[in-house]
Amino acid sequence: MKEIKTEIINTPKQIGDLVDWLVLRHAPPEPYEPTMNPTLRVYVIDVYSLGLQTFNTTGTKGRTLKDVLEDEKIPKILFDVRNDSDALFAHFGVALQGVQDLQLMESATRTTTSSRKYLHSLARCIEQHALHSEELTSWKRAKEKGRRLFRSEYGGSYEICVPASENAQCADYFFAH
């Protein structure tokens, strides 16, 4: 598997640079054709530290992350977007548009109506669709590491990622394998 480039975004300048990259990457051709070009990049945005700056910091073209998230022509792919959408709107006034929900896509691939009665969790989807056993093992290891970092019964805390740039453990959880 190829190396995934990772970056923790925790400054207004990084937000502006990310917004510029997203806008440039998804500048629509004429006529508009949707694109979903995968990259080997993962960005973890430290909304806890940045607060409203996360969504109102502008890039060089005057666009914000809020603009990108609300742009129906820029595809966003999330798994079970319901709570994320609710939290973004309630806390930051961000009304997601152009979201494709992987959980619903997975449900639609099932062959019988009865098999689509309930949505599967991310864990179950990964377990069922992992391409290689080493990928599944790696994912499970990262998930358990994250659980122990954040759950108080294991001595963890959600404060472990603040500030994220000073804590490699947080980055290890998000980007493991």
Quick overview of this protein structure:
This protein is mostly helical and 177 residues long. It has nine helices and four strands.
Structural class: mainly alpha
Most strands sheet = 2 strands, parallel
Task: Report the order of strands and helices.
Answer: EHEHHHEHEHHHH
List low-confidence stretches: 163-177
Number of strands: 4
Task: Kindly provide the radius of gyration, computed on alpha-carbon positions and rounded to a whole number of angstroms.
Answer: 18 Å
Question: How far do the termini sit from each other?
Answer: 9 Å
Helix run count: 9
- Mean of pLDDT: 81
Helix content: 40-55%
Sheet with most strands: strand arrangement: 1-2
User: What's the shape?
Assistant: globular
Strand fraction equals 5-15%
Can you characterise this structure?
With 177 residues, the protein is mainly α. It has a domain at 5-102. Helices cover 45% and strands 9% of the residues. It has 9 helices and 4 strands. It has a two-stranded parallel sheet with strand order 1-2. A two-stranded parallel sheet has the order 3-4. Helix 8 (133-150) runs antiparallel to helix 9. The longest helix has 18 residues, at 133-150. It starts with a strand and ends with a helix. This is 3'-5' exonuclease domain-containing protein.
